[in-house]
Each structure stands twice: as structure tokens, then as C-alpha cells.
Amino acid sequence: MKIVFMGSSTFAIPTLVRLFEKGYSIAGVITQPDKPSGRGQLVQAPPIKDKALEIRIPVHQPRSLKDDAARALFQALSPDMLVVVAYGKILPPWLLQLPRYGAINLHGSLLPKYRGAAPIQWAMANGDEETGVSTMQIGEGLDTGPVFLSETTSIDPDEGVQELSHRLAAIGSELVIRTIDGIANGTLKPTPQDGSKASLAPILEKKHGFINWTDPARRIHDRIRAFTPWPGATTLFRGTVCKILKTRVGGRDQTGSPPGLIFASKKSLAVAAGDSGLVEILELQPENRKPVRGFEFANGARIQPGEKFEPLTDN
Questions:
Q1: Burial status of residue 11 (CB atoms within 10 A of its CB: 0-12, 13-18, 19 or more)
Q2: What helix, strand, coil percent values describe the chain, rounded to 5?
Q3: CA–CA distance, 162 with 312 (Å, rounded to integer)
Q4: pLDDT at 41 over 90
Q5: CA 50, CA 245: separation in Å to the nearest integer?
Q6: For residues 292 and 285, what is the distance between their CA atoms, to the nearest angstrom?
């Protein structure tokens, strides 16, 4: 079976590596074009490109999948199957119909939950205790195709989204191998999704990271770990933006303090939440400064009684 692999982010790397290690015929890797990134806007390649070149698989970076050049490229590669992992673009109908086994996608959720661009982040932000990965046949809808296999894993209450993504990428790489083998030997058929149980995981925007201190402490903590590093969990302190990088759920505030009120000492920094819980700030980054530990920020800022973290708005 000749495979064309389509992926861009680091989430796709374990699957490409496992396909290579298992000896599958990989005709090429299709990934996004190199793009400017970061403050300096230096041009950077997608992470999957570097890995593909390292293991000597040809890389192609079409700017569009809708033109004649892209069609000619895929026809020349002549895949029996497309394996798609975090590629980042919608595949046109002609491309889905080209391989005899169609296009197989690894999705970072237990479908039909969290269809869309950010399933891992939204599962964590919503406080789910478990999530998983699914392999599915790509159709023309948004992650609506029939599912081949799924595997579940728990979400640790204090792990970050990058840790969870790494775990799911590793689990998913083995799931893709099992899926391809099952398709090839005719023992695996996909099962239609139950659309009535579907939920969406929309692409992340900056506003999703604005901390609402009136939320319960656990929800605040979950959203901070889900939205770090992107779009970043942000709040205002003395009129300037602070990124909250790492937290844990603390004890209870018995004094009825308003949400956002700061509790600072030489060894700790905590903030009152809307349910009278406390969010302990372990690491944060003031605007235009390097990240510091919470208590270091508290000591350096000389926080006064009654000072608060304030919410950002879209305005």
C-alpha cells in the first residue's frame, strides 16, 4: 500500500515516524508552506518537514489544494491511501476520491465529541476527566466521517495541554497503524458517528484566554492550562497585561473576598475566584518581561492590600 502523509504540527510527527519504522511505502509528505513566525517574523518550516527530511522522505508544500498543480502532484504520487494528521487545511472532494482507500484522519478526541480545530484544548478547558484519539474516514463534513477506532486516556488534573498532546500523539500513532492494517486485511470497517452526541471544538482566539476571575477556581485553572501557550491566559495588573503560565487550585477563602483579589506573601501568590476558591499562581509573565515564579512577582511588585487582577475585554 502506497501512502501519502499529510501533516504539519508536532502532533503529526509520531505517526509519520511509526509508519516509517513499520516499513510502509511513503511516497511523500505534504505539509504547509514555510511561514514567518514569532516576534522577529523569521520564516520557519512546519515541524513535520524537518522530521521528514531527516528520515529522507520527499516533502511537498503546495500553497493550495485547489489548483491544477496540486492535482498533478497527487496524481503523480498516486497514493492508495492518504494519512492525515494535523495538516491544517480542508481536503477538496477530488482529493478524497483519488486514493482507492480514501483519506484516513487521526483526530484528537473521542468522536463525535469535539469536532473541529482544537479538540485537546477544549476537552481540558471544559474540565473533562478523560479524552482520547480517533481514526476516521475523511468526508466532506467537519470531522463527521465514520470512525474506525478510538482509544481513551485520562486527563491528569494538573497536566498542561502540551503534555496531554504529546501523550495523545503517541497513542494515536499506534492507533493509525492498527487502522491501516485492519483496512488492508479487510478486518476493519468504520462505524457512522452519532451526530446527536456531537460537540464542537472551535479554533482558538485571543479572547478565549481572557481570565474571568468570577469563574470557579477549578474552571480558571483548567482554562489556564488548556490555553497555554496559545492563545495564552491573560489578565490585567495595574493596567498592564500579565500572562498566567502555571497554576494549581488552592484552598478556600473564608472572608468573602471579591473575585480577582490578590493574596500575596513572601512564599506564595493566590487569587480569589468566584466560588470562594483560591487559584495559586505558580508562574506568570508580566508584559515585556521574562516569566517569573508567582511569589517572586509578588515580592517584586510589592502588592498592596486590596489590589486585584482585573479582566481583559475585547474592546
A1: buried
A2: 30, 30, 45
A3: 25
A4: no
A5: 28
A6: 6
What domains sit in the chain, N to C, each tagged with a CATH number?
Answer: 2-197 (3.40.50.170), 206-301 (3.10.25.10)
* CA separation, residue 270 to residues 128, 241, 291 (Å): 24, 17, 17
Q: How far is CA 123 from CA 113, 115, 202, in A?
A: 9, 11, 11
What is the pLDDT at residue 11?
A: 98
Question: How confident is the model at residue 313, as a pLDDT?
Answer: 83
Report the C-alpha gap between 210 and 236 in whole angstroms.
Answer: 9
Q: How far is Cα 112 from Cα 249, in angstroms, rounded to an integer?
A: 30
The values of phi and psi at residue 93, to 5°, are -55, -40
| CB-based contacts of 197, cutoff 8 Å, min separation 6 | 112, 113
Position 249 scores a pLDDT of 97
pLDDT tens figures, 247-274: 999 999 988 999 999 999 989 999 999 9
Share of the chain above pLDDT 70, in %: 100
- Mean pLDDT along residues 22-39: 92
Contact between residue 16 and residue 52 where contact means Cβ atoms under 8 Å apart: yes
Host H or E run for residue 77: helix 68-77
Residue 75 has a CB neighbour count (10 Å cut-off) of: 11
Looking at 78-198, list the stretches that DSSP marks H as alpha helix, in order from N- to C-terminal side. 93-97, 119-125, 161-184
Nearest to 285 by CA among 247, 237, 243, 248: 243
Residue 225, pLDDT > 80, answer: yes
Instruction: Give me 80's grid cell.
Output: 492508495
Q: How many CA atoms lie less than 13 Å away from 184 in the CB half-sphere? A: 12
Q: What number is the average pLDDT over the span 221-244?
A: 97
Asked if residue 223 lies in contact with residue 233, where contact means CB atoms within 8 angstroms, the answer is: yes
Mean pLDDT of the chain: 96
Decide if pLDDT at 315 tops 70. no
